[in-house]
Specification:
single chain; 3-stranded antiparallel sheet; Dihydroorotate_DH_cat; Dihydroorotate dehydrogenase (quinone), mitochondrial; membrane; EC 1.3.5.2; Dihydroorotate_DH_CS
């Protein structure tokens, strides 16, 4: 740096100028040089120190950025969820704050993301699974409820999910049930919610999803029509290779569930608006917080409803039509009820079933040895649907039974061989899944995708990565045994 040198020259010149007029006191000639030399070395040392500090701070900032935005970072599990519970005693406020934070962080590139790809060193993908003709990079999904209005599908995909389900979305905007309507049961890692399908409405969500698709199309040099025609080579909903976006739809609360035609109109309206931007449409007839909704799971009305949805989905103006699934309740678990759902699925042409939702039951939710606080005892008895690890055994049981019933019906109607394989109905499992071992169990029981919801509330944004790592570790151990 030239500045110390220039300062020295200036000092020396100033000193010599009076001596030229009166040369006698030459003894002072060297005096200014020492301060100049001292200033130079001091400045040089200061500069070196500044560079060192700046480098250290820059390195720390980069390392901090990579750590904080990596889903493997432990603080995502052990710190963030606890801090959020302290800052937001109301669970719904915490939900909205989390959604807003992910949206804001994603917009500036500071969002948590999975930095380790699903493929191993050889390029193989041990967790890959084929669903609806798409090879998913992994079979772990995020259930509807976290992103009710499709505001953050991309930040959720960034967490490593193979499937993201947004919604539920109703034809018209509705507020849902009065607040408070979400309650924590921390001792069981559980939640009670009675949101009541609060939604901005199909038009608003469709507009947002369309703009998302257009923005992506422009970024890769495609038009909206070319995207819808599949020319970009990625699913139209997820906009990501090896991923699927599910859009859950439901009826408005004010629509009389006994008026089947009015109910069909609600769902068809949602399909008409949202189908162009969904890889999979999910028909929700299992929310416990909309009066009469679960009554639609009876064979007759369910068949009529699903048939109308499938017919409308086939009219979607794009090359690859969206698939249709139906989301069923964990509480309707009698064989006769389940057989009615299976019959409706096959008769309507629906592509699969999402097994599980929140439960209205309150027995068997607290493990032995766990003591609830007085507030938790009150919360767990609130009206609404319970979600949490206690639902896992019921989910596993239902997946196995639905797999057997769906396949049995398929054999009766389609025969053996290729026809059966081609038409086998897909199952997604949701309810109580919190770790890799549980995910593998539901997959082995007949599901193609294991979905999480409450597990992310308590496990943080690294939950998907952790579950997949646990799955890979267990599969590696099993491979060594063989």
């Amino acid at each position: 740096m030239a500045s110390p040198f220039l300062r020295t020259r200036h000092t020396l010149s100033s000193t010599l100028r009076p001596l030229a007029r009166n040369p006698t006191p030459r003894i002072n000639h060297a005096v200014p040089r020492r301060p100049a030399s001292t200033a130079s070395s001091s400045s040089g040392g200061s500069s070196a120190k500044t560079v060192a500090i700046s480098t250290a701070l820059g390195t720390a900032a980069v390392l901090g950025y990579y750590y904080a935005t990596d889903t493997r970072a432990s603080f995502h599990k052990y710190l963030v969820p606890r801090v959020i519970r302290v800052l937001f005693p109301d669970a719904e406020d915490a939900h909205h704050a989390g959604t807003a934070a992910l949206k804001a962080l994603y917009s500036v590139g500071l969002h948590p993301r999975e930095r380790v790809q699903d493929g191993d060193a050889t390029g193989a993908k041990p967790l890959a699974v084929n669903v609806f003709g798409v090879e998913l990079s992994n079979p772990i999904g995020i259930s509807a409820g976290l992103d009710k209005d499709a505001e953050i599908p991309d930040p959720l995909f960034a967490l490593g999910a193979g499937v993201v389900e947004v919604g539920g979305i109703t034809p018209l905007p509705q507020e849902g049930n009065p607040k408070p309507r979400v309650f924590r049961v921390v001792s069981t890692d559980g939640l009670i919610n009675r949101y009541g399908l609060n939604s901005k409405g199909a038009d608003a969500v469709a507009a947002h999803l369309r703009e998302r698709l257009r923005t992506f199309a422009r970024s890769i040099g495609f038009t909206e029509k070319e995207m819808l025609d599949g020319e970009a080579g990625v699913p139209v909903g997820s906009l990501k290779d090896g991923r699927l976006l599910c859009v859950q739809i439901a009826k408005n609360k004010k629509t009389d569930e006994k008026d089947v035609e009015a109910v069909k109109k609600d769902y068809v309206t949602c399909v008409n608006r949202l189908a162009p931007y969904a890889d999979v449409l999910v028909v929700n007839v299992s929310s416990p917080n909309t009066p009469g909704l679960r009554d639609l799971q009876a064979t007759g009305p369910l068949t009529a409803l699903l048939s109308a949805v499938v017919e409308e989905a086939q009219k979607t103006k794009r090359k690859v039509k969206p698939r249709v699934m139906v989301k069923v309740s964990p509480d309707e678990d009698d064989d006769s009820q389940m057989e009615g759902v299976v019959q409706a699925v096959w008769m309507s042409g629906v592509d699969g079933v999402i097994v599980g939702n929140t439960t209205k039951k309150r027995t068997g939710l607290v493990p032995k040895g766990v003591r609830l606080t007085s507030q938790e005892q009150k919360n767990i008895m609130e009206d609404g649907g319970y979600s949490g690890p206690a639902l896992f055994n019921q989910t596993l049981n239902l997946v196995g039974r639905y797999r057997k019933m769906l396949d049995s019906y398929s054999l009766k109607t389609e025969g053996l061989g290729d026809a059966f394989n081609k038409n086998q109905k897909v199952i997604f499992a949701t309810g109580g899944i919190t770790n890799g071992d549980e995910a593998l169990k539901v997959l082995n029981a007949g599901a193609s995708v294991a979905m999480v919801y409450t597990g992310m509330v308590y496990g943080g944004s690294g939950t998907i990565t952790r579950i997949k790592n646990e799955m890979r570790e267990k599969l590696a151990i099993e491979d060594k045994k063989q």
